[in-house]
Amino acid sequence: MKLSLSLAAIAALLPQALGISRWDTCGGGGVTTGKCDDGLVCVELSEYYYQCLKLAPPYSPTSTSTSTSTRTTSTTFVVVYEHPELEQLYLDFSINFYKHLDDDYVQYKFFDVRNIDICLPRCQEVQVLRSSAEFGSAIPGTLNKDYTWPSPSSVDYFLGKGMNFFRIPFMMERMSPPATGLTGPFDSAYLSGLKTIVNYITSKGGYAALDPHNYARYNGSVITDVSLFKTWWKNMATEFLTNDHVIFDLNNEPWGIPATDAAALMQAGLDGVRAAGATQSVFVQGTSWTGAWSWESSGNGDAFKTISDPLNNVVIEMHQYLDTDGSGTNSTCVSPTVGAERLQVATNWLKANNKKGFIGELGAGSNNDCISAIRGALCLMQTSDVWIGFAWWAAGPWWGNYYQSIEPPSGPAIARILPEALLPFA
């Protein structure tokens, strides 16, 4: 999600002199390093995920208000929301908003794991579960303190409901420590954790997408050396060469770079996977947070026309949220028809260019308009013959009361989104 995540671990560590950009993570797990750019506020969406959002004018550094929940706790809010209606929404879900203009933060975003059978010719599966291996700011970090991996019991829950695709985000800096760089050896413990959950999923018949959740960045900088990225993916694909239920999701939500650069990076990663001898599916993503609704206007439409795979097994991954700015930070959808409307241009592009697409992040609120919009989007996808599936944002053991979470047993979106909008298409 650009927030994305636009409500979506880290993209990249920005130099200390720079502020954290809008939609990016500004901390988690009680750790804060750096601070948001001017005009942005760091919002705690869950215990482990904070994000920089835009302040609503007029802004006063000392202007705060205290609200008391209908439950037994009180929550402090800063009256500077990008969407003022978020105050009651997040109060209802006991999510705290904090203003941190002087504290230090780290840039991060979201992460997830999803569900879809990539072998199906039509969209007939839904998201599953989201991982948390990109949570937190510490590198390498401590397992179960700074980050965690998906719960096997949650994997079983989703598999039992017919969902069989899991997108597993992780942090490249933890996998490839900056001291040795992208071509150095992988961290053995972190790689072992990834393999453990991947093998659990695939041994049960599910599909696991490896998702470096880095926004086309590594160690604080945009990845510009495509040869290093190619080598990194050659090495990673080699680790999973014989597991035909693994999918290579090359990098999450590039942003702030030209579409041509994003396409070149993705082509290099794809070439690296094939150089390893891997034949599994490869997912590629465009710039501007790989948004479906902006696929043409962002330049991705032109840049990705020539993406090529000798095995013809590449999938264009796009993300789509249904609130006003497409960020996934607001539970109110634009209209009951916005889902299909926002996917129409991308659908037309896929057809015109003989490509297959996948919605890697889909998100909206638990209300009638949003549920209608989700259904409309999925009906369009199912009847278009160009989308192989979609994944819901989000699930995972550390999402807490985040309003889009379908993490069992009691994620806020389980009550309506799961039975009314997702399972009918599973």
Automatic annotation (TrEMBL):
GO cellular component: extracellular region
A Pfam family recorded for this sequence: Cellulase
EC number: 3.2.1.4
Origin superkingdom: Eukaryota
UniProt xrefs under InterPro entries: CBD, GH, Glyco_hydro_5
One Gene Ontology molecular-function label: cellulase activity
The keyword Signal is annotated on this UniProt entry: yes
PANTHER family membership: ENDO-BETA-1,4-GLUCANASE A, GLYCOSIDE HYDROLASE FAMILY 5 DOMAIN-CONTAINING PROTEIN
Name used for this protein in its record: cellulase
Organism: Serendipita indica (strain DSM 11827)
